[in-house]
Structure formats: structure tokens, C-alpha cells
Amino acid sequence: MVHVIKGKTCPEVWLKACEYLLDKDVPKYEDYNLLLDIKSPFEISENDKIIFNLVDEFLGSKGGKRLDTVADTIFPSSFYKNGFDHMIEEYPKFIEKLPKKCLGSWGSTYAYRLMQTKELDGKNFSPIKKIIENIRKNSSHGKRHELNLTSFDGDIRIYDPNKGDDKFMGGPCLSHISIKVINSEFINLTALYRNHFYIERLLGNLIGLSKLQSCIAQETNLKPGCLVIHSTAATLDRKSQCWGIDDIRTLLQDIKCEHQKAA
Asked: How many domains does the chain have?
């Protein structure tokens, strides 16, 4: 069964999703096939800022990964500041120089695989660069389709069992990214997660994916559209000796209290 959670912004949907998983009717605080539908992933309200700040503070104080750290594994904003070509050229070099222990059990980042992978003949190529080139060539193609069919389908596979990604635990959770051009005007992005931790990872993931979406839109002279996340397995993750379910309840309650104060 699929459960859909809709909202306008990334923090709003994150909060709704966590509240859903915290509900007493959701066994073990986990569920399968959650769809998160975010209408305006780049808009930030005052209430959204409260969520960002409290979640980031929570993760930092509990030994978790800060939001920017998680977001940068998907889209390294600091490299993009110097231009798209600079990013896809320099970021892979930066990652390759890092000790493997800094990159986790699968020895890479999502951003690295977006920017550099190998063809069947062994040659390097950039999936995100190829996607952008194809969109530039085909962004008006969809006008001749009915029912607002997309003009270009761009798909990037992140999960690769040939690279040791077929582990039960510790491998990449983001498996696939699909890019759609809607009405020759908007870039929609859909991301598929095989296993998704909603406390330590989801909000940072949303930040990174929205920045990736914005980059593709900017580089193709289009507008960012909707962001959709399909979590095939979603959980309110707890870390032993770091945080538990009561800490999560307190975090969500603190957010509600701050929202009431700001109202």
C-alpha cells in the first residue's frame, strides 16, 4: 500500500512525514512505499527556518550528521559557486583524494556518481552533464504530445551492484533519480530510496536534491518544478546512546511550540 504525503515546502513535508511515522498506528515507527510530494521545494517560510534550525541543532548535539553535511553528499554547493564546469571537473578530484574512511562503507558519494561514472568501454563520462545536454536539445519536444506528456526523460542510476552496492546494510540508500521536463518549462525530479532514515537523512536529502534540481533548471534555462521522493522503506531512525523515540517526540513538540510562538 502506498501512502502519499503532500506539502508546499521541504521542511513542511518532512514534519508531516515524521509525524505520520510517529503515529501509534504505524508499527515500529516504519512504513513502506511512502511518497513525498513537494510542490515548491525552494520556498522557505519562517516556520521552515524554525524546522531547519531545530533539526540541525538536534543532530549536531546528538552526534548525528548536520543538514549541510548530508545535503553536500548529493549536491556540493561550494563547488557549484564557481560554475558548473568547475564543479564536475574538480569535485571528483576532491573526493578521490579523501581517505576511504571519510566516505563511508561504499567509498563514494551520490554527487560523485552524478558527476563521474564509466561507460561500458571503461571511459569516464558525467551523467549530470549528459542529462543537461539532452534537455537543452529536447526541451521543446513535448509540445507535440497530448496530456502534457514530458518532453524528455532523464534517468540516473545511483545503485550499482557491480560496485559493491548489494550490501544489506551500509550501502547507498538513494538508488535512482529521474528527471522530467514538463511542458517545456519545468524540471521535475523524482528520487527513489531503497531505505530511508527520516531523522538523520531525510531533511538533508531534500536540501541536496532541491539544489540539484535547481542546478539542472538553471543550466537548461528552465524553472524548477515539483520534487517527489519515493521511500520504499521509511523509518524514524534511532541511534543507540545518541537519541531514541522520546527524543524524537520532544524534537517534534519543540517545533510545534516554536511555530505557535511565531504565529
From this structure: 1
d(CA 64, CA 263): 30
- Express each pLDDT in 31-53 by its tens digit: 999 999 999 999 999 999 999 99
pLDDT confidence band for 210 (50 / 70 / 90):
very high
Q: Which three cell numbers stand for residue 86?
A: 568547475
Rounded to the nearest 10 degrees, the angle between the axes of helix 46-61 and helix 10-22 is: 60
Cα maximum dimension of the chain: 60
Domain that holds residue 30: 3-262
- For the stretch 48-70, pLDDT in tens is 999 999 999 999 999 999 999 99
Q: Give the CATH number, domain containing residue 157.
A: 3.30.572
Residue 127 is predicted with a pLDDT of 86
Angle at which helices 127-138 and 202-219 cross, to 10°: 50
Beta strand 30-38 pairing with 3-7: parallel
**How many whole angstroms separate alpha carbon 20 and alpha carbon 144?**
41
Exposure class string for 69-85: b at 16+ Cβ within 10 A, else e: ebbbbbbbbebbeeebe
